[in-house]
Amino acid sequence: NAGVTQTPKFRILKIGQSMTLQCTQDMNHNYMYWYRQDPGMGLKLIYYSVGAGITDKGEVPNGYNVSRSTTEDFPLRLELAAPSQTSVYFCASSSWDRGEKLFFGSGTQLSVL
Amino acid sequence: GQQVMQIPQYQHVQEGEDFTTYCNSSTTLSNIQWYKQRPGGHPVFLIQLVKSGEVKKQKRLTFQFGEAKKNSSLHITATQTTDVGTYFCAGHSGTYKYIFGTGTRLKVLA
After folding, report:
1. How far apart are CA A102 and CA A33, in angstroms?
2. In which band, very low, low, confident or very high, does the pLDDT at B93 lie, cut at 50, 70 and 90?
């Protein structure tokens, strides 16, 4: 099992550009999460999903969109990138039958210049 | 909305000293989880506590969940340089919306 895979690992965007951060998991987990972590700070929840077709806002959803068309994939869309979205983005997944332990991907480092 | 605070924000200890971080939630939690993040890495799960007043141990690490299920602590006995990193608590209030604490960054001086 690869676990949680995030692509790309690094990306530089210009202000106003858009992009999609990809996240896929091969553990058949029903819960998936997107967090952002600013330098030296904690993790803030952007969006989460409790199953295919179901998504909900986290603490900091503005400027982002998500979809969950399959159990495996949970892409995060940035529209009109802004410097305030410069951060490291982590995707995570978990399952109720595995104790809700969150498995994290290795992260995407995004800079908006 | 739910907020989870941790204190202290930073802690520097001499190797061999003990370390404790405290986690406080604004709402009652269904469970509490603890994660460790090494510099440049991603958070890694340490443990989950579910019951009110629960105490669990992992070698030199002791985890507690408060009676009201709104606070928790992580205590490390006799720290080692391998304990360096940031420790986060995380929990939800029944919605699987896991909110992370602000984190405590531990530095161990040899």
Report:
1. 9
2. confident
